[in-house]
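Methods — Computational structure assignment.
A single polypeptide chain was analysed. Its primary sequence is given first, followed by the predicted tertiary structure written as structure tokens.
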Amino acid sequence: MVRPLAAVALVAACTVAPAPGLELDVGRVCDDIAIEVDDPDVLPGSTVHAAAIPRSGEPDAWYLATDPHGTLELRRVPEDMPAIDLSALGSAGEFRVQPGPIDGQVWLELDRLEGIRLWQIDETTATVRDSAAIVFPAFDGVWSRRVVFLGETPHLVAVPVVARVGTVPIYVAALTSDLEIAESWELTATAECAPFSELSCPLFWDDLRDVAVPDAAEAGSIAGTALLLAITTQWTGDPVDPEMAPVFSTNMISVVLQRDAAAERPVLTRRDHVAWTNDGPVFPAPAQLAADPLGLYVVAGLLPGPGTSAAEATSSDYLFRAPLLGSGTADAGDVIALLPKTLESHILQLGSRVALGQISGKTWNVAPIEGLTVNEDIVGSLAVDPETIVLRAGRGQFVLVADWQPTRRARIVCAEPSAE
């Protein structure tokens, strides 16, 4: 059942039972939550682009940041391990940093046409391993690659940047401790179509489209990993002829990869969450996912492209939930909320739980998602600049970046009970 919900600051929830409280990774169930600022001024004078928290409940953090002199580095705070100078290797937007599933590990990656380069930081041994550019898969093509984790084992996933909607090749390879390719597999994310649905079934569409991977599940949040794919009509950038206007399509799908002891290869499950059709080019934004033990959550919407009317974008962002009942379950789930664009909605991973974040004026609001309900009875709030960008750093921590405020690092905690 589709249950669109109105929203003002936080989405109005359809509560069917008393809220059970939010169990955070702090060993207790919270009756209420708060947003606690752990570092009120992260790397003063520097621009922070991304962050990763190596250990749960610890103040240490790694930041991808550009210092006042224009040097791009991956820096630890406190600075008791050397920074990694990245200035000669690429721009900030080309790097991706994330915490690993094992406490004390952080992974950095740089994906280029010639291959993907990796860095593995292990704070336990105070070592940094790095690789040369890894060519995977080992044949011609242009790929979007990233590191994911099946259990505690790192894997490379490669997705072609151009593919058919109905059948997207997914290449997976395990990585050795030396950051080299071990066993690899070729999988296919194939759409499932209802009988007699040839006209609307992606399996019967032969045109090639652009494929992007805007997000992946945080390590350890799901039994395996999950990727969010945005598949869009190719556009050359030329002005659209109103007399022969093409149709621009956007398909948002998720791909879950899990290891099955009885199978010789990872098990892949595809879910088709939504397909939008527009008269002008659009961009998928937001496009994020997160997971709890029972469900996969996706927040997605559209922004107008160059020369496209704002009416072509979605007036609201969509929050989807799909059940995770084991490998092979391809239920695409339901829309559980419609979120006004003005609230900059985003999905937050809180350990094994999921929350919805929104910026309403000068306040950042965070509310847990309980199954099909956004729980407004448990809301944490923090005063922020209206233009604040929330960077997800992993392990329930976040970095708040704004032009007119110091960069801050915050975490979601159990609120202390009131004295009343």
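Note: Residues 1-20 have pLDDT under 50 and may be disordered.
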